[in-house]
Task: inverse folding
């Protein structure tokens, strides 16, 4: 039989923590915060899915660090040891790899859904720009982590990726040398990518993520232009939206476990820097649209090297996306902007077409 002082003691402990942490104030804020409802509401969940997958990346990455040893003579062997000898090591490695790819996909979907909903319009310009920074960091995470197993595909894909970086005008050769740690992909590249992947990028990503989430809490979620914004159309963020988000996270986790069980991430063969590149080698799918499009450019365009023109075009496109809140003046006035919508559709169509061509016609 419980003592009559126990409930009051629990209330006293709760009040003690609440006074110092402000839990009740935070819950009150979340209860008053609403999420716009409508046919577009489904797109709001991809931000939470991206965050959930990032959490899986951190958790599985920390577990893999217990056994991973960077080095030309140890990287491949340590990953091989993880997937063959460590209990459930194959699962952790597959979870890390599959969740990385799904995270990139979720971040892309989140970015384009925000773009098409014009949710970058004032006062959410900084929210959009920090989101674009997170997209860039996510892609860099994928690029740096791809090399760490030191297998054949990762080695030659990294060579392709750093060769593309070297084409950037003026700073390209310096960037390529900084990434490689020399003139070619080797041991220095591996150790640098390991440092980027486990230290520098997580710190930068976490800092930008905190700012991004604070801006979302400060500005709220944007409704579609012209949508009914009456209070009755809003869903309470807590507990309604959070519970739905959590259910979706469980669904994503189930998909990940199915992929890891029936399609575990393959390790392949160890990289041999002196071997010839396999036919049809290409970067990971989220960089394929860049490498594939460069293949279709002529050797020279208006007196300039074709690859240089192509890379400059992609850089201008990235700058356009970063600055779109300041360029789309109609959306800033809460008016529909069909021109920017068409530009977005063209970008998505181009990316999907290039990826499809790369995988359907790899040679």
Result:
């Amino acid at each position: 039989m419980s003592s009559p002082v126990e409930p009051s003691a629990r209330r006293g402990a709760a009040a003690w923590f609440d006074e110092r942490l402000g839990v009740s104030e935070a819950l009150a804020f979340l209860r008053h915060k609403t999420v716009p409802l409508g046919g577009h509401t489904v797109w709001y969940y991809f931000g939470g899915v991206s965050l959930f997958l990032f959490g899986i990346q951190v958790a599985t990455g920390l577990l893999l660090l217990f056994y991973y040893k960077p080095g030309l003579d140890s990287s491949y062997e340590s990953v091989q040891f993880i997937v063959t000898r460590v209990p459930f090591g194959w699962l952790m490695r597959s979870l890390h790899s599959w969740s990385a790819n799904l995270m990139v996909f979720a971040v892309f979907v989140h970015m384009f859904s925000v773009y098409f909903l014009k949710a970058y319009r004032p006062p959410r310009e900084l929210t959009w720009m920090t989101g674009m920074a997170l997209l860039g960091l996510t892609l860099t995470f994928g690029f740096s982590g791809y090399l760490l197993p030191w297998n054949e595909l990762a080695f030659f894909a990294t060579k392709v990726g750093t060769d593309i970086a070297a084409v950037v005008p003026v700073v390209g050769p310096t960037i390529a040398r900084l990434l490689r740690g020399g003139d070619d992909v080797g041991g220095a590249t591996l150790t640098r990518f390991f440092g980027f992947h486990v230290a520098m990028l997580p710190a930068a990503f976490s800092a930008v993520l905190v700012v991004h989430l604070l801006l979302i809490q400060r500005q709220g979620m944007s409704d579609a232009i012209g949508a009914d914004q009456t209070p009755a159309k809003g869903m309470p963020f807590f507990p309604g939206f959070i519970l739905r988000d959590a259910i979706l996270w469980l669904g994503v986790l189930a998909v990940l476990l199915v992929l890891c069980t029936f399609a575990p991430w393959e390790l392949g063969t160890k990289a041999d820097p002196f071997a010839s590149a396999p036919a049809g080698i290409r970067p990971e799918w989220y960089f394929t649209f860049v490498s594939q499009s460069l293949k279709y450019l002529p050797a020279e365009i208006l007196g300039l090297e074709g690859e240089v023109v192509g890379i400059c075009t992609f850089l201008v496109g990235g700058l356009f996306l970063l600055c779109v809140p300041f360029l789309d003046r109609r959306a800033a006035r809460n008016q529909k902007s069909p021109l920017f919508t068409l530009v977005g559709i063209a970008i998505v169509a181009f990316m999907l077409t290039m990826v499809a061509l790369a995988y359907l016609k790899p040679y």
User: Anything to note?
Assistant: The chain has 14 helices and four strands.
